[in-house]
Amino acid sequence: MAIAESELILNHDGSIYHLNLKPEHLAPIIITVGDPDRVDEVTQYFDTIEFKIKKREFHTQTGIYQGKRITVISTGIGTDNIDIVFNELDALVNIDFNTREIKKTHTALQIIRIGTSGAVQQNIPIDSFVVSETAIGFDSLLHFYQSEHIQELDISKALVAHFDWDKNKSIPYSVNCADKLGTHMQSEVTQKGITITNVGFYGPQGRVLRLPLKDKKANEKISSFIFNEQKITNLEMETAGIYGMAKLLGHHAVSMNAILANRITGEFSKNPKETVNELIKYTLSKIVSYVH
User: Fold this and answer.
1) Best exposed site among 16, 82, 203, 288 by fewest CB in 10 Å?
2) Mean pLDDT to the nearest integer, 214-237
3) What is the pTM of this model?
């Protein structure tokens, strides 16, 4: 059955509504970044760039790096944008734009997030790299989809009990990264962890400027939570949405985190741009050796 024009919205040139991309613009390997300016920081290492486009916060470039065709796209901040980006990336490879019907053969994308994050354990050093093995979403994105079958429900239940969860907040959801891709991206220079994805940068992550917090001990509860001998390692704003949407749509995703802040010690990186650049180079080197 054809998907209605109100649901699958295409621009006059046949591109997908928000991203402004056509199927031929997309590579099988996708790097997502939050900041539109970070796209250039990734593609500066490419051998060639075949396509560039910008629309709103979505900046996309596709090119070749050491024989691998890669698309780099900025998502902006937050899981609301992840919902847009991942539905439209999937549509580009798994829906026929001419017939508006789902293709009979499914295409799975390999998706790697390169982002910044804050550690919630004292022993995680500034400027280190964390590969998110599991992500816990404090937003509500996955609850709008039939998603319990891809969630790690035991982790969510344990966290709710540990927090004495506020009934006015959405129940957290938990999703693992893609096993093969996640394992490949690890090495002696990374550590794996459990990542919290929150709905904001200030209050939701326990930062106080002028507004008092409802739960002043939220970050203490996050730091003290243990599940199967594992602790939560870091906070950011996209990973859980990426893992959830990728798994629901049949894609493979992993999140690479540059630790720029330690929320326990109060430290912030003296060279944040250099740290992110080192993570970009590391991630690209791992992509080159990945066989999917």
Assistant:
1) 288
2) 94
3) 0.96
